[in-house]
Amino acid sequence: MRLAAVIALVVAALQPAAAGWLNQTNHNFEFRAGYERGFFGVLEHTIQFGRGGTQFDYVKEGNQNILFPFERLSAELHLRQRHGIVFLIQPLDVRTVASLQNPLVVDTDTFPAGTPMNLRYGFDFYRLSYQYDFWPEPERELAAGLSLQLRDASIAFASQDGRKLRVYQDVGPVPILRLRTRLPLSRVMWAGAEVDGFYAQGRVVTGSTNVESTFRGAILDASLRYGLTFRDALDGFVNVRYLGGGASGQQEKPENPGDGYTDNWLGTVSLTLGFYIR
Fold first, then answer.
1. How far apart are CA 132 and CA 39, in angstroms?
2. Domain ranges of the chain
3. Buried b (16+ CB within 10 A) or exposed e, 195-205
4. Secretion signal: which residues (predicted)?
């Protein structure tokens, strides 16, 4: 159903009357809708729960060594060309099946070697950004701003016989710095780049108050894209993106059975096709 809706939007934007499919030319604001879809691969991914727990390599031992589907959706509101508000929805839900090569210690539980496992790493997030475009020309962009990202994490280790299950879930805000640029290459071709990222240590700024001052977290969402303008209402593009980050440190009051220590780092690269409708 979602793919059908996307196709319907593209078809509508290509109709002759769609020069301003979402907008009227006499307004001081502009709406844009974006969608991209493709695949991603995991470059590296390790996780550890509990100081005495196993540092588990999802790529080598958890079968995250294949390609996974990737998509993201965005909606933008641009005011008087210079001010922009961007809302992003980014699903990220990786599920694999593996037989443990070695014993896996997750906080207070131990999964013996050879155990058939269902593994889930869910890290959907939602991001609201404000940016200011320092380039006055409408066909160019050099924008900087701030984002507030809401993570919706769900991580699970489950033996296939149903005897052992460990689930970690967390929702929390993360502040992020933002930069985006776009340059025309010709009348119909353009290139762009986008970076959202931060590195922080301590309470609150890392998205949690229940952590020690040495707790650290980071995220980097950086992309390069090449696009074509098909008409005033529609751009298409191909996009290469690095998406990664993680956190490491100690909770002051453990929310799950165990000592509250976490070390979790992920790095991925994606290739997608996408479009913007205006």
1. 31
2. 2-277
3. bbbbebeeeee
4. 1-19
Cα torsion through 223, 29, 138, 235, rounded to 10: 50
The 8-class DSSP code of residue 112 comes to P
What backbone phi and psi angles, to 5 degrees, belong to 210?
Answer: -95, 50
What is the pLDDT at residue 3? 53
Tokens 């934007």 — which residue? 13
Query: What is the CATH code of the structural domain delimited by 2-277?
Result: 2.40.128
pLDDT of residue 26: 66
The SS3 of residue 11 is helix
> Which tokens in the block code for residue 211?
């952590």
d(CA 270, CA 242): 7
Distance CA 25, CA 14 (A): 17
Given this model, what pLDDT does residue 253 score? 87
Q: How far apart are CA 179 and CA 149, in angstroms?
A: 15
Alpha carbon 172 to its chain centroid, in Å, reads 14
| 171-187 CB burial, b ≥16 within 10 A, e <16 | eeebebebebbbeeeee
Cα distance between residue 211 and residue 152, in whole Å:
18
Matching residue, tokens 């002759």: 16
What are the angstrom distances between the C-alpha of 140 and each of 82, 134, 166, 193? 11, 10, 49, 12
**Cα(251)–Cα(261) distance, integer angstroms:** 6
**pLDDT value of position 8:** 46
User: Measured between alpha carbons, how far is 193 from 190 in angstroms, rounded to an integer?
Assistant: 11
Q: Which residue has the tokens 């699903």?
A: 91
